[in-house]
Amino acid sequence: AWKSVSDYCKDHMHEVAFNVWIKIIKPVSLEDGQAVLSVRTRFQKDIIEKNYMDLLNSAFEQTLGFQPPIVLITEEDQKEGQASPSEDQPPRQTKVLNGDRSTLEYTFDNFIVGASNKFAYAASQAVATNPAGAYNPLFIYGGSGLGKTHLLYAICNEIYKNFNDINIVYIKGDDFTNELVEAIYNKTTNSFHNKYRQADVLLVDDIQFIAGKLQTQEEFFHTFDSLFQAGKQIVLVSDRPPKEIATLEERLRTRFEWGLLADVQPPDLETRVAIIKRKAEALDIAIPDELCMFIANRLKTNIRQLEGAVKKMKAYQQLAGEAPSILSAQNAIRDVLNDNQPIPVTIDRILTEVSRTCMVTPEEIKSNKRSAQISNARQIAIYVVREITQMSQSAIGEKFGGRDHSTINYAIQQVEKNMQKDPSYRATIDDIIKNIREK
Ligand code: ADP
Ligand code: MG
Questions:
Q1: What pTM was estimated for this model as a whole?
Q2: What PANTHER family does the database record attribute to this sequence (predicted)?
Q3: What are the residue ranges of helices labelled H in 130-212?
Q4: Is 148 annotated as a binding residue?
C-alpha cells in the first residue's frame, strides 16, 4: 500500500521536493486504522506536517478508499525514548547562529513589494515556508541597498517563528573566510566543519567575497554538497549573478545555478514613494505627498538612501524643530548623498583583502619574507594600492616597509605582465579590486 501512496505523491508534487521529503518516509505499520510513518529527524517531521499532510491524506484516500489518521514518528525521538537523555546532548532548539537582535526588525511584513523585487520576495517566502522544498539553493542578487540582506533576515525570522528544533546559520561571505583562516590557525577546523554542516538552513550574505580564495572555496564546496545532499536549505546572496563572479570556481558556479536565481532591481517611482511613506510612518513623522514625490524623484537607485533621507528629516524636526519642507528635504537628500560617498579606502583594507585571497597575513605582506606565496601577495598588494589610491611609487614604498620606488615599479610591472599572460590571474586581481571598492 505504501508504494501506491508514495507513487500518488510523486505524481502530485515537484520531483525535488518528493525526493527530499516523501521518499525518506518509512512506513511502520497500518494497524487499528492508523498509519504510522517514520522519518529520521524532527526537522523532517516538522516540514512534512506543515506542508504535506493534505497530500498524504489524499494519497491514502486514493489507495485505501478511506483516510486513516497519520502518525509521524522520528528515529530521533525513538532513540531518546530508549536511552536516558544524555547530558551532553541538550534538546535541540531552533537557534540562529551569528544573528543578533537588530536583525529581528527585518521581516516580510515591513518589506515593500514592487515590480522590481516581487520575484525575489516570493521566492524568499516560498523558501521560508517550505525550506528545502523546490528552490534549493535560492540565489538572490542585485545592487547595493536594494533589500537583499533584508530578505535574508526575513527568511531567517520567518523560519525561526514557524519551526521548532531547526538550526539556522547566517554568515557573511568574508566572515566565512575569516573564520576558516582562524580555524586553520587555531587547529579547530573540525568544529568549523561541524558548525556549518549541522545547519538545517544555511544563509550566506555577500557570497561573492569567497571568489578567488582557493581554500575558502574548497571548504564551501564541501559544506554546500554535504548540506544539499542531506536535503538542507541553502540561500545565497550576491551583488552579481554567479556567471559574473569572475574568479568563482566552475563547480561552485554550476551549483549556485542549480536552484532558483532571483534578482532585485532598483525600485520604480511608485515603490520608492511607498517606501518613503512606510519609513515615515514607522518613524512617526508626517511627510506630505509632494515631498515624498520630491525625494523619490531624486534618489532613484538605492533604498538605503531613501530610508536615510527620512531619518534625516526626522532628526531635523526633533533637533531643530524644522517641520518637513522642500528645504529640509533638499538638505536631507544632500546629506544622504554625502554620507554615501565611498569611505576612502585605506591601505589596511587593501592588505586585508589581498591577504585573504592569497592566504597570508597582512604582516607577512609588509615583512621582508621572500617565499613565493608571500612575494606574490606583496606584489599584488602593491599593484592594487597603486590602482586604487593613485599614490606615487615612493609613497607606496614607504607604506611597504621603506622599499624604494624602483622596487615598487618592478612589482607593478610583474603584476601587469602576469595579468597579460594569465586570464585567471587577471580575474583574481579584478575581483580583489571590485571587492575593495564595493565594500
Ligand atoms: P542590500 O543588502 O541589498 O545592500 P539591505 O537589505 O541592507 O540592502 O537594505 C538597505 C536598507 O533598505 C535596509 O534598511 C532595508 O530595510 C531597506 N529596504 C530595502 N528594500 C526594502 C523594501 N523593499 N522595503 C522596505 N525596506 C527596504
Ligand atoms: Mg547586504
A1: 0.70
A2: CHROMOSOMAL REPLICATION INITIATOR PROTEIN DNAA
A3: 148-162, 173-186, 189-197
A4: yes
